[in-house]
Amino acid sequence: MLQFLKWGGLTIVAVLILCWLFIWFVASGVNETITYTEKDFFKYHTLTNKDIAQAPRISDEYYFESHPGDGYEPTNSITFKGATGIAPLKVYLKEMGYIRDGRSLGEMEIWLKPGQSSGNQFYLYFNAATGDAELTKVLNN
Hints:
Largest sheet: 7 strands, antiparallel
Strand order of the largest sheet: 1-2-3-7-6-5-4
CATH architecture of the largest domain: 3-Layer(aba) Sandwich
CATH class of the largest domain: Alpha Beta
Number of domains: 2
Structural class: alpha+beta
Keywords: Membrane, Transmembrane, Transmembrane helix
Number of helices: 4
Transmembrane segments: 7-27
């Protein structure tokens, strides 16, 4: 009986420590922008929105960012370096049923689904001089 209590107590302590470590790991980056690549298996599969993960790769050099929102809607984006154009990204958005809105956000194009003013939207940015391109999805619930 005494040995059962000893091992039961140790098991409870071990479970509490593991729970605390898990919560600390998850909460440590809760309000920070997280930058990662597809090679970061855990981050890629837990943080990347399906529409961003399936976006066409327009250059060999790219990375992802997850923005928690911090007062705004959270976003998920893929950023390309050395891109020569964004036509495949525009085709991809059109295939998903999005259209380019007449408005813009700075140098970014806004893409919306017709008739869904409060639905998910994308921002598309391209700098031809640097080859930087970014596709960002606003994650509305």
